[in-house]
Amino acid sequence: MFDNFITYLTDKIELTPEQIIMVEQVCRLKKLRRKQYLLQEGDIWRYNAFVSKGLVRTFRVDEKGQEHIFQFSPENWWAGDRQSYVYEEPAKFNIEALEDSEIILIPKGDFETLLEAIPAYNTFQRMLLERSFVVLQNRIHMGNSYTAEEKYNEFIKMYPDIINRIPQHMIAAYLGLSPETLSRVRNHSAKK
Amino acid sequence: MFDNFITYLTDKIELTPEQIIMVEQVCRLKKLRRKQYLLQEGDIWRYNAFVSKGLVRTFRVDEKGQEHIFQFSPENWWAGDRQSYVYEEPAKFNIEALEDSEIILIPKGDFETLLEAIPAYNTFQRMLLERSFVVLQNRIHMGNSYTAEEKYNEFIKMYPDIINRIPQHMIAAYLGLSPETLSRVRNHSAKK
DNA sequence: CGATTCTTTGAAAACAGTCAATCTGTGTGG
DNA sequence: CCACACAGATTGACTGTTTTCAAAGAATCG
A55-61 and A93-97 as β-strands: parallel, antiparallel, unpaired? Predict the structure, then answer.
């Protein structure tokens, strides 16, 4: 039931059989159908969510009603609203399934217990956060210095495996472009 | 000598006298004069750097030769290149003093030892990283959905205390605007 | 198949960037 | 103490990229 997740974990860190049981005991499986929400803006996010199957998007709606996608999470990625999680305040993000998905939820309290009980996991978790930090940093740089075309090229270079599972206008919403601009960029690039 | 830093730390977490000594023993003081560099692109960054006095900027130069400022670090903030630090690869960033500054350097290895020896510090460090993550997240959103004017207003709201210590064209380089655009935004806003 | 959703295309408008010149203030050296 | 040089800020005119609005076409889901 949690095999995907356990495989993912034991791939990264060594776990004793007892520790594996410990992990399994705090896992909860949640199935989502396409278009179903895992988190709605305004609710407080109190989980760590591992996508074991499917694809999920984390997005935000701005004052003008426009959607901005923060992250796509396919299998073996995490999803969540860190701001809501850390500060325990209402989420600004929504999380929605783009495909029928299976999510493993670990409640915040249990997760913290895990980290304390398994030092290697604590270290791994910190590394994960540091890497995510670097990714965000590069996205800021990209946003400030790349043209629309460069942004798109960077995206297909970074995420070649998921582009065909995501509607184009959502890639635009991720890159901070209008759908029309992205469409033009794609066709124009092809011409050259 | 390291008083500022020790005050900062004991303000956040409880430390025994022995632990304080432990911390002090791994600290190194580095004085920088205005325009001096703490890190140059291409070098590997192996420290944790706490600004105990002065002001420092972390920036990157893109292919077109344009500067993009990632962060300003005044007193009681940290500076560094996390990508270089984590992956031990050549830095893409430069760090330069904007004022005569005093920096406390803790070598990577020593810092990790500290975190292991002082669990409370480990937790605090993780919280710091999580908060930084949230800040970056919001900056991405800002970059994708704010106009030039909104970006500037957000900046003065977030960092009212340092705006008068930073030349305007550097604020522009931080926000991803041209200096001319920022100048116009400021005057135009005043008119209304 | 029917309806919705997604993509493409065109034309016009808005926004920010570039280039160039001028203006301002500051600090340095004669 | 003045004059000059230099870095930074402002302004204007122009350009270019991206957005917006609108409509039509294509694809997909139920």
Answer: antiparallel
Strand C proximal residues, B:10-69, Cβ < 7 Å: 64
Whole-number Å distance between alpha carbons of A138 and B111:
25
User: Would the pTM of this model clear 0.85, i.e. be above it?
Assistant: yes
Cβ within 8 Å, pair B126-A127: no
Confidence at residue A190, expressed as pLDDT on a 0 to 100 scale: 54
Class for the domain spanning B3-118 = mainly beta
pLDDT for res A1: 83
Count helices and strands (H / E) in chain A.
8, 8
CATH topology of domain A3-117: Jelly Rolls (2.60.120)
| B192 or A82: which leads in pLDDT | A82
For residues A119-131, give the mean pLDDT.
93
Taking C1' of D9 and every protein CA, the nearest residue is B183
Strand duo A47-53 + A28-32: pairing: unpaired
Q: Which of residues 90-149 of A touch B (CB under 8 A)?
A: 122, 126-127, 129-134, 136-141, 143-145
